[in-house]
């Protein structure tokens, strides 16, 4: 288990396209699956759609039309990305986004961590960042949809089933 010393520290990255990056600091720089070379958190909405598609493919998600993904990103209130920088190359290794009414409610969507980086605490980082930014905006209700196999992950982060027993309802075109 990797313990996070400090989630965020100002980066020395000079590139203007990377000015929104913050460096993640870990106590243990290696594990048996991944060597940690500079992993950065970014809150920019300028996401490479093809890299995002590759990340989603890596966890077996159904392909979505890039045109619609682009619209979803544009309409997201917050986007958090995790970028691994190794030498001159970057790799998108984590992602999540939230939509909000900017008054009371927000919903977290599309939480994805590359399989090579799962189990290292990076999912906690993206959720923590989303919650922190939403709470700074005084959003009081944060919801998400979770597959049954990841419900326990979100419970550990403080998410609960609706205490009032409200069940979500959906409408789909026939």
Mind explaining what this structure looks like?
This protein has 174 residues and is α+β, with helices and mostly antiparallel strands. It has one domain (22-161): Gcn5-related N-acetyltransferase (GNAT) (Aminopeptidase, 3-Layer(aba) Sandwich). It has helices at 49-58, 66-74, 122-136, 151-156, and strands at 4-10, 21-26, 39-42, 78-86, 89-100, 105-113, 141-144. The longest helix has 15 residues, at 122-136. The protein starts with a strand and ends in an 18-residue tail after the last helix. The model is unreliable at 1-18 and 25-29 (pLDDT under 50). This is N-acetyltransferase domain-containing protein.
Looking at this protein, list some descriptive labels.
174 residues; alpha+beta; Aminopeptidase; seven-stranded mixed sheet; 4 helices; 7 strands; 23% helix; globular; disordered N terminus; transferase
List the helices and strands and how they pair.
Blueprint lengths: L3 E7 L10 E6 L12 E4 L6 H10 L7 H9 L3 E9 L2 E12 L4 E9 L8 H15 L4 E4 L6 H6 L18
Parallel strand pairs: 6-7
Antiparallel strand pairs: 1-2, 2-3, 3-4, 4-5, 5-6
């Amino acid at each position: 288990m990797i313990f996070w010393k400090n989630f965020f520290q100002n980066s020395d990255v000079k590139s203007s396209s990377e000015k929104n990056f913050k460096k993640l600091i870990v106590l243990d720089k290696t594990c048996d699956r991944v060597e940690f070379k500079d992993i950065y958190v970014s809150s920019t909405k300028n996401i490479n759609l093809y890299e995002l598609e590759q990340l989603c493919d890596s966890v077996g998600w159904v392909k979505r039309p890039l045109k619609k993904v682009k619209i979803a990103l544009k309409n997201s209130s917050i986007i958090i990305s995790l970028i691994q920088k190794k030498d001159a190359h970057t790799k998108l290794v984590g992602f999540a986004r939230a939509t909000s009414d900017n008054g009371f409610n927000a919903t977290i969507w599309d939480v994805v961590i590359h399989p090579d980086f799962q189990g290292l605490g990076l999912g906690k980082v993206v959720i923590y960042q989303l919650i922190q930014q939403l709470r700074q905006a005084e959003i009081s209700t944060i919801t998400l949809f979770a597959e049954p196999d990841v419900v326990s992950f979100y419970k550990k982060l403080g998410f609960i089933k609706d205490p009032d027993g409200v069940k979500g309802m959906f409408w789909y075109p026939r």
